[in-house]
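Run log, item B.
One chain of 296 residues. Sequence copied directly from the ordering sheet:
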Amino acid sequence: MHIIVTGSLGHVSRPLTHILLGSGHAVTVISSSESRRAEIEELGATPAIGALDDPAFLTDTLTGADLLYAMVPPDMRRASDLVEFYREVGENYARAIRETGVPRVIYLSSFGAELNHGTGNILGAHHVEETLRGLTETDVTFIRPTSFYYNFLGFIGSIKSTGKILANYGGPNKIPLVAPRDIAEAIAQEVDRPGQHRKIRYVYSDERTGDEVARVLGTAIGKPDLEWVVVSDAEMKQGLLGAGLPGALADNLTELYASIHSGRLGRDFQANKPAEAGSVKLEDYAPEFAAAYRHG
C-alpha cells in the first residue's frame, strides 16, 4: 500500500513511519523542511518537501496514494489564529483528496473534537473533522488522542519558579493521558484493517489525577513533595502571559484547560473509552520529563 504520512518526522509521524515501513508499505513523508530530506530517505521513505497550505503541492503528492495519514502540524507563526490555520489546512486536504480520489484517510484529531465551542485550539480539530466528513466518496477514520504527556513540559517553568505545578485543571481530578508511540501503533492498526466510511477511535495510555502526576513527575526530578495546585482561569491566563505566550494563545490554552477541568472535553471519551489503554504509562514517561527538566 502507498501511504502518505504528514507531520514530517514529528512525535507521532516518526514512529508511525517506522512501523509502516516495517510492515512493507511504501511511505511518502511530507515535510516542510528541506533539512529533513536525507533523514527521511535514510529511513527508507520517500520525502515530499512542501507546505500543507500549498494546494497544488498536496494534489501532486497525493496522486496515486492508497491512504493519507493527515494531521495539522503546530505553526507558531500562526499562534494568533491557530483555529483558522486548522480550517485552511483541512480545506486544502479535502480539495486534494477530492481531486486525486484517495480512498482512505486517517486524521489525527483530538478528544473533544465533537464540540463546536469552548475548547480553545481543539476547535480547529473540530473544523477539520467537519470538513473531512464532507468527503462522501472517502473512508475517514478519526483518531482522537487524549492529553499528550509532553504537554507537561509546559509546567517546567512554573515548577522552577514556584516549586509547584499551577494550572486551572488537574489536582484531584483525573486526566486521560497519551504517548505518541501508542498513537502511532493505533494508527498502524487502523491502516491494516478494512476501511469504514466513518469511524472514531479514541486513544489513551493512562489516566491519572493531577496530584498523582505531580507525585510521579516530582519524584523523577528529585521533588517528591511536588504539589499540583488548581488556580483560577484568570490566574492561569496571567501565568501564560507572564511566560511570554501571545494573548490569543493564552486565551485558547486557558479555555482548553478549563474544559478539561469541567469534564466537558472528556465527556465523549469517557462514554466511548477503549477497553484497553496503550502501553506507555506515566511512570514510563517520567524519565523523559526529568531529562527535559534538567536541561531546560
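Observations after the first pass:
- Residues 82-100 form the longest helix (19 residues).
- DSSP finds twelve helices and twelve strands in the chain.
Flagged for discussion on Thursday.
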